[in-house]
Fold this protein.
Amino acid sequence: MIELELTPKIQEWLDTEPGKRDIEAGANLLLRVSRNQILYRNIMANPARKASTLEYHLQKILKNRLIKKTHSEVKQLMGEVDVIAANRGLKPSARTPFQNGKRADHDELPDEIKQLYVDNADIMRRMREAHSRLRMINPQNSTCPDSDRYPLAKAIIAYDRQYRDNWNKYDHYVKGSPVASVELAVDPRTAEKNAVKNLNLMLGKYAKNPSEAYATRIKDLYATISNPSDALRKKMEDAELV
């Protein structure tokens, strides 16, 4: 299993000016990752001459780790995008309306509230365009699919969050009240908070008694969380579930 805490330490060591690098500390990082005792001893036998060798190996390790990290992040983001695509009808074959419905008193609402309805039409257009571009990316037309997918997946998730927030505010505005005083009857992220809580409990049980069926349930629940914390992502990585 990859020791994730070493990645930023390797990055920090490589970012240090060559003349100020602690060769022994770098060699110890290399040893912890590679377990190569012979390489470690060769470097420490002549640190000044082997500094470039140490840098080469750490650069290679960092590059591979960042590639794996990006792949893991994109895989998780794509799971979120699939949920959004299903909910919003983003796939070409889907015929889901973009809106919940215009209010009967729409024309009597404050301009700021009416604008939310207009904004959501534009947000849906952008979401569809981003999803179309995302679907077109593949190893045949992209030298690095993960890097190309990452910003589009992040954009779709952000668009969906704004889309939900706009509808929530539009639907629950009470005519005649100050716009700033809108009380949302249901925060759409409450369910996500509960999902995070349940996921942490499930990960604890999985650590004690792992099973393929339980792993699938955890992965499915994780895919519904639109913006997992670094701590939660690390727990999933430590459990080798992403």
User: Anything to note?
Assistant: Residues 51-88 form the longest helix (38 residues). The CA atoms of residues 122 and 163 lie 10 Å apart. Residues 93-99 have pLDDT under 50 and may be disordered.
